[in-house]
From TrEMBL:
PROSITE patterns: ADH_SHORT. This is SDR family NAD(P)-dependent oxidoreductase. It comes from the Bacteria. Keywords: NADP, Oxidoreductase. Signal peptide: none annotated. Belongs to the short-chain dehydrogenases/reductases (SDR) family.
Length: 273
């Protein structure tokens, strides 16, 4: 089979949460560039308008929907609008997420009191769990009924993290816990929904250069400890995640469910030379 057929997403109705920037926007770019009908969902109306306009300028069919992924009513309304517009929902990227702050070590390998478990904020815990974990549960509850009733099932692709499967030192224990729960939820949902031809998978990056955490990884010095931990010697850009997104949304992954695709430069393997 030719690559153009294997990775064909032309005409598929795609929805992406947290899509006005960062990883979500990168997903939107690769989906739109390959002919999908793309719907961006975000909490930031201005950024959403800018992102939709930029993608439409390339001739793609792109729409925007406002939603706060921690507010059920707005999430349900956004997806209802998308289904009303297109008549179906083929691929959903549950992508929205936030940082939980620094870990219990700093970049020099020294203890960081602000990241000590006894000093972590309950408010931050609740906000991160709501945004990173509960929002995925809410997205699943919202989109699964649509996918069950349509021919062909659907694809649900969750942005998880290598933190779902390893402990962390430079990343907050709150963030790691939120993603560990997401990793399990992906596997559980994949098991339950296989009967309905709904495939549920995760893209699990290591550190990615985005605006998350105040955009700190845009600073070369801030990246160094993460780069030292990666055998390939660098951390991800959002473009590094686009290949996995296209794969999981396309016929190429038609027998893949419950999987976690690591995109981490080998970080999960441990440091090398």
């Amino acid at each position: 089979m030719k690559a153009s057929e294997l990775f064909n997403v032309e005409g598929r109705v795609v929805a992406i949460t947290g899509a006005a920037g960062g990883i979500g926007l990168a997903y939107a770019e690769v989906m739109a560039a390959n002919g999908a009908k793309v719907n961006l969902i975000d909490i930031d109306p201005l950024a959403l308008t800018v992102a939709v306009g930029r993608l439409r300028a390339d001739g793609s069919e792109v729409h925007g929907e406002f939603a706060d992924v921690t507010k059920p009513d707005t999430v349900r309304q956004a997806f209802a609008n998308i289904v009303e517009r297109h008549g179906r929902l083929d691929v959903v990227f549950a992508n929205a997420g936030i940082s939980g702050g620094p870990g219990f070590l700093n970049g020099a390998g020294e203890r960081n009191p602000a990241g000590a478990i006894e000093n972590l904020s309950l408010d931050v815990w609740e906000r991160v769990i709501a945004t990173n974990t509960t929002s995925v549960f809410l997205t699943l509850q919202t989109v699964v009924p649509y996918m069950k009733q349509q021919q062909g099932g659907g694809r649900i692709i969750v942005t998880s993290s290598i933190s779902a499967s390893k402990t962390e030192t430079l990343v907050s224990s709150i963030y790691a816990t939120s993603k560990a729960a997401v990793g399990y939820l992906v596997r559980q949902a994949a098991h339950e929904l296989a009967k309905y031809d709904i495939l549920v998978n995760a893209i699990s990056p290591g550190p990615v250069i985005t605006n998350i955490g105040g955009g700190r990884l845009k600073d070369a010095d801030a990246r160094k400890p993460f780069e030292r931990a990666a055998p390939l010697g660098r951390i991800a850009t959002t473009q590094d995640l686009q290949g996995a997104a296209l794969y999981l949304a396309s016929p190429a992954s038609s027998l893949v469910t419950g999987a976690q695709i690591l995109i981490d430069g080998g970080t999960a393997l441990g440091p090398a030379d």
